[in-house]
From TrEMBL:
Transmembrane segments: none
Organism: Labrys monachus
Classification via SUPFAM superfamilies: GAF domain-like, Homeodomain-like, P-loop containing nucleoside triphosphate hydrolases
Name of the molecule in the record: Transcriptional regulator of acetoin/glycerol metabolism
Sigma-54 factor interaction domain segment(s): 339-565
Record-linked CDD domains: AAA
PANTHER family, per the entry: TRANSCRIPTIONAL REGULATORY PROTEIN
């Protein structure tokens, strides 16, 4: 992809207006001159003045998000994906609507606090915030890069961002995917790469929205990556939807509804028609206009509503041939037991959680980032007695300190300047009768810890500026990946609040220690209904076991997601995972004089890898040795060395 950039004001990229990323399609970035003119002439902004910073309340954000509620998971998945890819360069990622309002956001807690101004509810419309990625992209409807002083207001000169349009299934622009950093050390090269990733992610999100919209139809996919062509077909093989890639390719840009027969574009060849009915991969589709041939994949087939007459069979009738497709295993619902894994210690914890379910005992979930604390909290709610009541999550780290009070406890009529006239219902009241999930509780400021404790102890709440006491009845689940014990010892976390929250404490295992790592991978592959089916090859399973997974299940999810799209014939190999080949870094054990004992640590790591690999291959030494890249004899020697005789071994 080639990015052509029209500079406006002295930014880091001025010296290189054309940033070559690869030799494929060219993307014209917005010329910011037009936006600057609008700022001066239409909005009459003063560069050195203060932008009118404003943000929506939680309820308003909820209302603004409504049109996208059906696509929430898709949007969040893409944001998580782009954020996890770019977080090393301190980028946050957001999705905004066409009013320039940020609706969803992904950022690292440790990211620059300045990025807080990018959180949900923030309004980045160009007429409010001047030239900026989101607002200018909304006006120009093209990818927009705004670096440092390219922002109209000097106030935003420390921010750099790239925004790209997100399209509906009908290829109307419906929002903006934006990535922003306040890191001054990001180089031109990194920026070029980030721009590429952001633009591709916006295209993939648009494609995913297309798949969401046409999930009942047959989907024909041609090509890969950002130029993917997607066609949605009805049972008569009429095209009922086409993504931007398809419209560009076939020259239908102006057609609101590109309805036409598939066979008015491709040659109606018997082999292809037979293949269409019986296989998931079509070879040699020939275009009628230019006679070029291509291969295609059928992502899924039309689903008929009950009572709907069956689709007309394609002619000639399909033969009952053996399907070439990769079988898609059924995704099973998560349970408390599955969330915790089969390790006997964890199963004991699962039994404990089942026993206390419905007892209103507070639960504290601990564990590294991405291990599934949030997921377990939702499962606990959905399997408890309050499942028909609200589950309300509140992330203590994602809300600025100044807003936690009003967001969590709400406020009464006219509580403070700028408050909404009718007041605001806090999360605690929203959760009344149900479950309140306090995520990242370790990040709650001390002053608010006192208030929270009082509310939890008394069951009464008096919203800011209101004299009225309200009774609330909530089950509380809290979670953190911080060391709360240490925070208590250092006086950063109130001990009495810790005891109030820690009725039952469960620590989730890091993924690298879970014996069911490969089962989780299989389950994740089965869970994305609209993605192409894929299964793990033996070498991929071994590679999964060897990797240390610092981002835990979240990282695994994205690695598999990428692999599913790059693999050939639906079989994921170790190469498709793009994992580093080194052995996992291990936390060294200590010798008696306190120095790290690297030898022991490595042995420990080796032992764990062997145990897991044998488990993955059901104890088959041949396969395990192959996967570990060692001879059978060496593996036997190591099994003896590590005293793994009790492991299931098939000779
Ligand atoms: N047992 C599981 N099976 C399948 N997917 C899971 C499982 N546990 C977690 N996930 C997925 O992994 C991702 C991260 O999970 P989750 O958000 O629950 O982790 P977390 O511990 O709360 O992370 P953080 O501390 O960063 O908030 C989510 O996309 C979730 O759907």
């Amino acid at each position: 992809m080639v990015l052509r950039r029209n500079e406006h004001d002295g930014s880091a990229l001025r010296a290189s207006p054309e940033v070559v990323l690869s030799n494929s399609a060219a993307v014209d970035l917005v010329n910011l001159g037009g936006s600057w003119r609008r700022c001066q002439e239409r909005y009459r902004f003063d560069r050195g003045g203060k932008p009118y910073v404003t943000a929506l309340s939680a309820r308003e954000i909820g209302e603004q998000r409504e049109p996208f509620n059906g696509n929430l998971v898709t949007i969040q998945n893409e944001l998580e994906f782009v954020h996890s890819t770019l977080q090393a360069a301190s980028f946050c990622a957001s999705f905004s609507d066409m009013a320039g309002i940020i609706l969803h956001y992904q950022a690292d807690k440790s990211a620059d606090p300045y990025l807080e101004i990018e959180r949900p509810g923030a309004i980045w419309a160009e007429g409010v915030a001047g030239t900026n990625g989101v607002g200018t992209c909304v006006v120009e409807r093209r990818p927009t890069m705004v670096i440092g002083r390219d922002h109209f207001f000097r106030e935003y000169a420390s921010l750099s961002c790239i925004a790209a349009p997100v399209l509906s299934a009908e290829t109307e622009m419906i929002g903006v995917l934006n990535v922003t950093t306040a890191n001054p050390d990001v180089t031109t090269e990194t920026f070029s790469l980030v721009a590429n990733i952001a633009i591709r992610t916006a295209e993939r999100l648009s494609n995913q929205l297309f798949l969401d919209r046409f999930r009942q139809n047959t989907i024909l996919k041609i090509g890969n990556g950002d130029r993917t062509i997607l066609l949605a077909l009805d049972g008569d093989q009429r095209i009922v939807g086409a993504n931007r890639g398809a419209r560009d390719c076939f020259g239908w840009r102006g057609d609101a509804r590109p309805e036409r027969d598939l066979w008015s574009i491709f040659e109606r060849d018997k082999g292809v028609i037979d293949g269409f009915a019986s296989a998931d991969h079509l070879k040699g589709l020939r275009r009628l206009d230019n006679h070029l041939t291509c291969d295609a994949t059928i992502l899924h087939r039309e689903r008929k509503a009950p009572g709907h007459p069956a689709a007309k069979p394609p002619s000639p009738l399909p033969k009952p041939e053996k399907r070439l497709s990769v079988a898609r295993p059924r995704a099973e619902a998560l349970t408390i037991e599955k969330c915790l894994g089969p390790d006997p210690k964890m199963q004991a914890q699962a039994r404990l959680l089942r026993r206390v379910a419905g007892s209103s005992l507070p639960i504290l979930l601990l564990g590294e980032t991405g291990v599934g604390k949030d997921t377990l909290a939702k499962v606990l709610h959905s399997q408890g007695e309050r499942r028909d009541k609200p589950f309300v999550a509140f992330n203590c780290a994602a809300v600025p300190e100044s807003l936690i009070d009003s967001e969590l406890f709400g406020y009464g009529v006219g509580a403070f300047t700028g408050a909404k006239r009718e007041g605001n219902i806090g999360r605690l009241q929203q959760a009344d009768g149900g479950t309140l999930f306090l995520d990242e509780i370790g990040d709650m400021p001390l002053s608010l810890q006192t208030r929270l404790l009082r509310v939890l102890e008394s069951g009464e709440i008096s919203p800011l500026g209101s004299a009225k006491l309200e009774h609330i009845n909530v089950d509380v689940i809290a979670a953190t990946n911080n060391d709360v014990g240490k925070a208590v010892a250092e006086g950063r976390f109130r001990q009495d609040l810790y005891y109030r929250l820690a009725g039952v404490v469960v620590e989730l295992q890091p993924l690298r220690e879970r014996p069911d790592l490969v089962d989780i991978a299989h389950a994740l592959l089965a869970s994305e209904a609209d993605a192409p089916p894929a299964r793990l090859g033996d070498d991929a399973m071994a590679a999964l076991v060897r990797h240390p997974w610092p981002g835990n299940v979240r990282e695994l999810k994205f690695v598999l997601r990428r692999a599913r799209h790059v693999c050939e014939n639906g079989v994921i190999t170790a190469q498709d995972l793009f994992l580093p080949s080194k052995l996992p870094p291990v936390s060294p054990t200590r010798t008696t004089d306190g120095a790290p004992d690297l030898d022991l640590s490595l042995q420990d790591a080796e032992c764990k890898v062997i145990v897991k690999t044998l488990a993955v291959f059901g104890g088959d030494v041949n396969k395990a040795a192959q996967a570990l890249n060692m001879s059978r004899a060496t593996l036997y020697r190591k099994i003896r060395l590590h005293k793994l005789g009790s492991q299931k071994v098939i000779n």
